[in-house]
Amino acid sequence: MQKLIVAIFFVATLFQAKSQDVVGKPLMWDVVSIKPHRALDDRAMTRTLPDGFEMVNMTIHSVVSQAFPVRSADQIFGWPSWTNSDRFDFRAKMDAETTEAFRKLRGSDSSDMWQLMFRQLLEERMGLKYHVERRELPVYDLVVAKHGPKLKLSATDEQSTSQSSPGWLSVHRTPASGLAGILSGIVGRQVNDKTGLSGLYDIELTWHWNNDPESVETGPSLFTALQEQLGLRLEAAKAPIEVVVIDHLERPSEN
User: Fold this and answer.
1) SS in 3 state form for 116-128?
2) Could you tell me the sign of the dihedral formed by the alpha carbons of 239, 241, 247, 252, in that order?
3) How far apart (Å, rounded) are the C-alpha atoms in residues 225 and 232?
4) Distance from C-alpha of 75 to C-alpha of 87, rounded to nearest angstrom
């Protein structure tokens, strides 16, 4: 099964467009193409290119979350009904000068700028209007289980990497807060690090991904695997969270 790179973003507040100051002005796409998906092949695909991206057979629901620093699509409200059914092919490309400027961005500046550019794309092509508010939502707290953590400290010369596929996760040199960020995307709910752990860890986690009701594969659930393999636990809780509320969104016109 193909391994997917998991991106981990750390944000202190929902909208910090500080990357605008890094390059003097927001970067812009040179060419954007959005078309209804008409191919008989129903496989979805996302590919990052040196100068842009390509997304094939994607719902708007699965795309819009890339425009905001949210940990799951559940932090976005006000979806029009068609956003989870109509499917589109997206292609966007930067010119050479913009590509070079984007490559110079590092860390949160890079992720902030990507989200800003994605929001501009949605605003220009789909009339996106939104506002931000705080709502109390279900979350999970990541805590240390009864018998203590079972985490391996990273070697000082290792690089930070993360890979995943359904039912498997491998992360090297990450804090507990980084694991919480990854788990947020897996469980579809914000996970807050409440472990009190301050080290950098190498983490291997496997669990039964029950996505196929006819599957004969067995194994622990994610919740059980966390306790048995890492000595950690997810506790259900509620917390005020900044969310995005969509006020207006139109079907994209074909080009």
Assistant:
1) HHHHHHHHHHHCC
2) negative
3) 9
4) 21
pLDDT digits (tens, 9 = 90+) for 195-244: 999 999 999 999 987 655 555 567 899 999 999 999 999 999 999 988 99
CA count, 13 A, side-chain hemisphere, 226: 21
95 vs 184 pLDDT, higher one = 95
CA distances from 239 to 68, 130, 131, 152, 245 (A): 19, 22, 19, 30, 18
- Tell me the percentage of the chain whose pLDDT exceeds 90: 49
DSSP 81-124: GGGGT-EEEEEEE--HHHHHHHHT--THHHHHHHHHHHHHHHHH
Among the ranges given (155-169, 173-187, 188-202), the one the predictor scored with the smallest mean pLDDT: 155-169
Write b or e for each residue in 29-68: b if 16 or more Cβ atoms lie within 10 A of its Cβ, otherwise e.
beebebeebeeeeeeeeeeeeebbbebbbbbbbbbbbbbb
The CA-to-CA distance between both ends of the chain, in Å, stands at 35
pLDDT confidence of residue 21: 43
> What is the bridge-based pairing of β-strands 191-193 and 52-59?
unpaired
**What is the C-alpha to C-alpha distance for residues 128 and 124, in angstroms, rounded to an integer?**
8
| Average pLDDT over every residue of 99-123 | 88
Picking from 178, 182, 184, the residue whose alpha carbon sits closest to that of residue 169 is: 182
Most confident of 1-5, 139-143, 161-165: 139-143
> How is the chain split into domains, by residue range?
7-134+242-248, 136-240
Phi and psi torsions of 203, nearest 5°: -125, 130
**51: nearest Cα among 34, 23, 30, 22:** 30
